[in-house]
Every structure is written in structure tokens, then in C-alpha cells.
Amino acid sequence: MKWISRDPLKREVDSKDHDLLDEVVERILSKVTATSDFGIELQIHDLLLKNVKYVNKERNTEHTIEGPLLNKKAVCEGIAKAMKYLMNRKGVECEMVLGKLDDEEDDDIYHAWNVVRIDGEWYHVDVTADIGISNGKSFRYDYFNLSDEEISMDHLIIRSPVTCNVSRNGYYHRMGLVINTQKEFKRILEEKLENGESEFTFKLPSAKDPEKVTTTLMRHIEEITEIVEHPFKRYEISPNPDQLVYTIRFL
């Protein structure tokens, strides 16, 4: 997947149908029932993941909030603008960041995402990246509330209005989905299989050799599936080694 934008921070919203846009925005915001900053961010993030498709196009509307909110299709710029607009409407500080993805070799292709102020601290949130690694049945939160250091594992920050210094306080940490030891992983996996759960996503706090993590996980999965009775025939792993987030899906 390629995210295209020719300097997202220079474009302005260009809505030709303000009435329709206002109606859609009000309908979206009516579904945001949370009252905490984190809850509001989570609900808006999930609404965008559920309803917006990333498209690699250069049409103007896909660079504005019209793309994701009216047409449900946008490039990273439109998605980041929609996130900022909806968060600001709910009273939560949210700005845009200009940067690049580490795997993007074209010097003219930029990437846009957001910084949000949650409980007095600033974090990076890249909704476009989470859309790209999610599917219709489950959402990923690999880029939900990261520090400068954490987002820089696979993003290059070119221009940001703030610094984000708080680490290990993203979605997976706050939801208790960080697995600290191999023993803990095997215990949780065994519990999931015994309960007939077909999918779970977790984050590792660190890894000496991230490239070997998937191999180690496979070894543990095969060991546990041999000793636990379960209805599944096979499994698949969706890895994000840069952020050390993994989804295991049993089929």
C-alpha cells in the first residue's frame, strides 16, 4: 500500500456542499457517546476504521474531509483532516503531522497523521495506518497513541506542532494487551483455545531480534495446539514487527 500526499499541511478544506457535510458530521458525532478524551478518540478512530477506505488517488476531494466523511474514500491527508476536525468538534486537541513512511523511497511522497492531547499528554495516532492493517471483522491499534520514539520505528517525522514524550501508554498498554514473557503468552494462548476464541491481538514490550518473533510464536502455537482440545484446523499470524504487534487468527 502507498500513501500519497504532496505536502498535506498546505491544503485547505474545500467543501462545495456545506449543508450535507454538516449533516454527516452531526450524524457521526451523535455516535460518539464517550466523555473522556481517550474514549472520544477511541470511538472516532473506530468510526473512521469502520467506514473509510484508503484509496491511492490524486482527486481533490480525497485530500479534504469530504473524501472520508462524504465519499468514505480518502488518502492519508483526508483521513488525518477528518480525525482532526471530528476530535476538535468534540473538544479534544488534535493537530496534523507531516512525515514519511520508512519504506517510501519517493522523495515527493509524504504521509499525514495526527497528534492528539489525551489527559494532558500528546501522542501520535495514525488512523490511515490502522485502516491499512485492519479488516472488516477486527480493528488494529498499532498506531494509536505512540510517543515520538515509538512512531519513529517506521515513520519519519518531518513537521509536528508538538513533541510526544510519553511511551508505553498506547492502546495495547492501556487495555492490558501487552505480553511480557513467553510463559505468559503460552498461558494466554491456552486459555483462548479452551474458550474457543478464534482471534487475539497483543503487543510485545521489546524483542532482541524482531525478525525471529514470528518463528518463536509459531513454535509456541504448535506446541499448545497439540495439547489443548480445540475446533480449529489452522492458524495465521498478521505481524507488525516494527511495532511488535501481532494478531493470531485460528480458522
Describe this entry's structure for a reader.
The protein has a 5-stranded antiparallel beta sheet. The protein is α+β, with helices and mostly antiparallel strands and 251 residues long. It has 9 helices and 10 strands. α2 packs antiparallel against α4 (76-89). The longest helix has 15 residues, at 37-51. The model is unreliable at 1-15 (pLDDT under 50). It has helices at 18-29, 37-51, 66-71, 76-89, 127-133, 148-151, 171-174, 182-194, 213-227, and strands at 53-54, 73-74, 94-101, 111-118, 121-125, 144-146, 155-159, 199-203, 235-240, 245-250.
Task: Looking at this protein, list some descriptive labels.
251 residues; alpha+beta; five-stranded antiparallel sheet; 9 helices; 36% helix; 20% strand; globular; disordered N terminus
How many helix segments? 9
Helix content: 25-40%
Termini gap: 26 Å
Shape: globular
- How much strand? 15-25%
Kindly report the spatial arrangement of strands forming the biggest sheet. Answer: 6-5-4-3-7
Q: Return the string of H and E elements.
A: HHEHEHEEEHEHEHHEHEE
List the helices and strands and how they pair.
Elements: H1 18-29, H2 37-51, E1 53-54, H3 66-71, E2 73-74, H4 76-89, E3 94-101, E4 111-118, E5 121-125, H5 127-133, E6 144-146, H6 148-151, E7 155-159, H7 171-174, H8 182-194, E8 199-203, H9 213-227, E9 235-240, E10 245-250
Parallel strand pairs: 1-2
Antiparallel strand pairs: 3-4, 3-7, 4-5, 5-6, 8-10, 9-10
Helix pairs in contact: 2-4, 2-5, 8-9
